[in-house]
Amino acid sequence: MSTRIKICGLKTQESIETAINSGADMLGFVFAKGSPRYINPEEAKQLIELIPDGIDTVAVMLHPKQSEVDRVLNHVKVNYLQTDANDFDSFDLKGHTHPLKVYRDNETFDPNIMEDKPFALFEGPMSGTGNLVNQERAKIACDSKKVLLAGGLNIDNIKNVLTHVRPFGVDVSSGVEIKRGVKSEQKIIEFIRIVRAFDKEMINGR
User: Fold this and answer.
1) Cα 78 from Cα 45, distance rounded (Å)
2) Which residue has better confidence, 24 or 204?
3) Cα separation, 42 vs 46, whole angstroms
4) Which of 1, 6, 24, 88 has a beta carbon 3.0–4.6 Å from 19's, enabling a disulfide?
């Protein structure tokens, strides 16, 4: 089975088209105002309308209130809303948007708490820091759950992470940027190429 690839923090038509043409499965848009990757719902709506069927879209938020969730989902149609798992206790999702629950790495993390229908996301204590999660804990989580692995992935380390952890999917944002909040089309292409080459090696039994 192919590794699911999510390219996150997209803000331009060019980077979206590059991700689509290179074979990304999921595209993420950040609606957390403190992030350098923030995009407002009006701008995101225009970009999301360009995305063909078959590629999942994700609204990424951080501890949102119901009013903030409603504002985003009233403007954009997305397949998933991504935020910390506990956040979903404080608001209701409407329409056909599914929860993508984020679980954060720490020394006492228990992967048994993860709800992975259809999958969960595992990353470090803080989003957007570019730091890798503990690889041993990530492997334990990915061995038992369907997990998108996030945090600190880039073209230099992704092959080793895939080999050691074998996640259901990978989520990259800062690792495919030329500067904070600005995507590199070449890095997007190369990141996806490396993941797909790994998938091919696994299919061929190497």
Assistant:
1) 10
2) 24
3) 7
4) 24
Per-residue DSSP letter, 167: -
* Dist CA 25 CA 2 (whole Å): 10
What is the C-alpha to C-alpha distance for residues 98 and 108, in angstroms, rounded to an integer?
A: 28
Structure tokens that stand for 43 in this block = 């701008």
d(CA 54, CA 204): 26
* Per-residue pLDDT tens over the stretch 16-42: 999 999 999 999 999 999 899 999 999
Alpha helices in 76-184 (DSSP H): 135-144, 158-165
Q: What confidence score (pLDDT) does residue 129 get?
A: 60
Question: Closest Cα partner for 80 from 63, 97, 103?
Answer: 97
CB atoms within 10 A of CB 196: 15
